[in-house]
Design goal:
Pfam families: Polyketide_cyc
Protein name: SRPBCC family protein
Domain Coenzyme Q-binding protein COQ10 START: 16-133
Largest sheet: 7 strands, antiparallel
Number of helices: 3
Helix content: 25-40%
CATH topology: Alpha-D-Glucose-1,6-Bisphosphate, Chain A, domain 4
CATH architecture: 2-Layer Sandwich
Number of strands: 7
CATH superfamily: START domain
Structural class: alpha+beta
Strand order of the largest sheet: 1-7-6-5-4-3-2
Length: 148
């Protein structure tokens, strides 16, 4: 199963970075590759259902995911409940680094769902998802800088 993991260090404390990561409905305003992110439903406890629409290499990728927020660990674990890919899951993590900053990690594992073309499509998808993830993390950093 293909995976993508990207990290980005930001000059913001862990609580501030965590607040920016969990505010998914603000993503489209600071991320060019995100068309929309919408809270569909708050589920029981710290679970929520989120609908995504993103640009990926000139195409539109859409899915709905269930997220579990762990505010103590500053971690969101997610998995696709419906959407364009066969499987899409992973996590966001915010952790402190020296000097008062934070590192934000986005990890994704996925299956396109076309087994006969997987050898050809997976490397392209990994590259595209990595680029999108890096753009998203840079967008979070821009939002943190502009809010100061």
């Amino acid at each position: 199963m293909p995976t993508v993991e990207v990290t980005h260090t930001v000059a913001a404390g862990e609580p501030e970075a965590w607040a920016a990561v969990i505010d998914v409905e603000g993503y489209a305003a600071c991320m060019d590759n995100v068309r929309s992110v919408r809270l569909v439903e708050k589920l029981t406890g710290e679970r929520r259902l989120i609908a995504w629409s993103t640009f990926l290499k000139g195409s539109i990728l859409e899915w709905t995911e269930e997220e579990l927020l762990d505010h103590d660990a500053h971690r969101i674990v997610f998995h696709q409940t419906s959407g364009d890919l066969e499987r899409f899951s992973g996590y966001w993590q915010v952790a402190p680094v020296g000097g008062g900053g934070s590192v934000i990690t986005l990890y994704v594992d996925f299956e396109i769902g076309i087994p006969l073309l997987a050898d050809m499509l997976n490397p392209v998808a990994v590259t595209a998802l990595r680029e999108n993830a890096l753009q998203m993390l840079a967008g979070i950093e821009r939002r943190l800088v502009s809010s100061r």
